[in-house]
Amino acid sequence: MDSGADRRWMRRALELARRGRLGTSPNPMVGAVVLDREGELAGEGWHALWGGPHAEVVALEAAGGRARGGTLYVTLEPCDHHGKTPPCTEAILAAGIRRVVIACPDPNPVAAGGAARLEGAGVEVALGVERDAAEALNRRWLLWARDGRPWVTLKAAVSLDGRIATRTGESRWITGEAARRRSLELREAHDAILVGVGTVLADDPQLTRRSGMNPNPRFFRVVLDSRLRTPPDAALLAWRPEEVVLLHTPEAPATRRRRLKAVGARLLEVEADGGGRVAVPAALRALAAVPVVSLLVEGGSGVHGAFVDAGLCDEAVFFVAPLLIGGREAPCAVGGEGVGRLADALRLEIESVTPVGGDLEIRAGTLVRHDVHGTG
Questions:
Q1: Do the Cβ atoms of 74 and 47 come closer than 8 Å?
Q2: How confident is the model over 50-80, as pLDDT tens digits?
Q3: Is the pLDDT of residue 175 over 80?
Q4: With b meaning 16 or more CB within 10 Å and e meaning fewer, what string describes 303-328?
Q5: Comma-separated ranges of CATH 3.40.430.10 domains in the chain
């Protein structure tokens, strides 16, 4: 088949993969298309839910006997290991597929090797068709698989002058109802939400998903809590406490550890930074092992500042209200140490600016910084 046709069918597979945007994590989004031996569409599929069948299996089942002698287009290298489901390579070989076209190789050493297995069995394999688009689609998952940490999204509601509260601490509500609804939808698209213990003590939040958009109930609520000051009767521990992750340092008292473990919280000890707080890089490594692929940081000024100071912000989503709050003591969206020179600032690339009610949603990401091909 000519390369133009390969690209067209792979773009269709990518369209299908996007349908799994909610529900597949910590697995990647994957789409697949099967053509019969005559080059006609025989079956389609996508990975819809973590723990459910993979895209290749869904597409092959849809194609049935027409798959024999045909071509499979898939956006990620088929897995060659037993996980929650059997290896996709076995299903491909059993279906009698003659040719497999793959957009992106799998960087996960546990699941990789599918292309080599298929070639060894006599299947023709083409790799790299629409690779850039496939890697952009799964940029969060690829960062986790390659760098061993979650994708980090900083979220804040701010005034035009960058304040998240008045000098007296009043912050409800800077943005309007439509922006607040949109903000809650961000939780649906992430594996976990993170706040500092100060937010827990001041607001006693539940930190749950509320929009009902994501069919996968798996959602971790994470607190940076160096000395485990989270109360055992905190609201977030009243529901599914096993999905509450408290990140603490070795200095956390043993009595507090016992009390919080007794109510079902998951405690992860990580190293401290120079100020005795949880070190952000260590926290992300610990969360990656949970696994958390994407992390929504809804902390205050200090928490956001810690991530930016560490250079660990992949995306920022700010909801900007047309307010001028002012005041030298009014907290800004990002605190921390900051930089002394503009050249050292964490520069983001604007991805979108969207009106939401009377406010603006601004998304910016570090797309230029990330080497999606892993070449250096």
A1: no
A2: 989 999 999 999 999 999 999 999 999 998 8
A3: yes
A4: bbbbbbbbebbbbbbbbbbeeebeee
A5: 148-365
pLDDT at 1: 54
Residue 370 has pLDDT above 60, yes or no: no
Residue 100 CB-density burial (10 A; 0-12 exposed, 13-18 middle, 19+ buried): buried
Two tokens at 330? Answer: 């009014």
Q: Tokens 């839910």 correspond to what residue?
A: 49
The residues, ordered by sequence, that sit 6+ positions from 133 with a Cβ below 8 Å of its Cβ are 11, 14, 103
56: annotated active-site residue? yes
Could you write out the DSSP letters of every residue in 286-307? HHHTTT-SEEEE---HHHHHHH
pLDDT of 369 reads 40
Backbone angles phi, psi at 373, to 5 degrees: -90, -5
Domain at 3-137: CATH code: 3.40.140.10
Say what percent of the chain tops pLDDT 90.
89
Residue where the block lists tokens 């509500």: 173
Query: Which residues are 220's β-sheet partners?
Result: 192
Task: Considering the candidates 15, 40, 44, 56, report the single residue annotated as catalytic.
Answer: 56
Could you give the residue range(s) of every CATH 3.40.140.10 domain in the chain?
3-137
The lowest-confidence range among 104-108, 278-282, 324-328 is: 104-108
The listed CATH number (3.40.190.10, 3.40.50.720, 3.40.430.10, 3.40.570.10) that belongs to domain 148-365:
3.40.430.10
Hey, CA dihedral for 78, 81, 82, 86, is it positive or negative? positive
Backbone φ and ψ of 288, nearest 5°? -60, -30
Which residues share a beta bridge with 151? 294
Q: pTM score, two decimals?
A: 0.91
CA–CA–CA angle 56, 293, 369 (5° rounding): 105
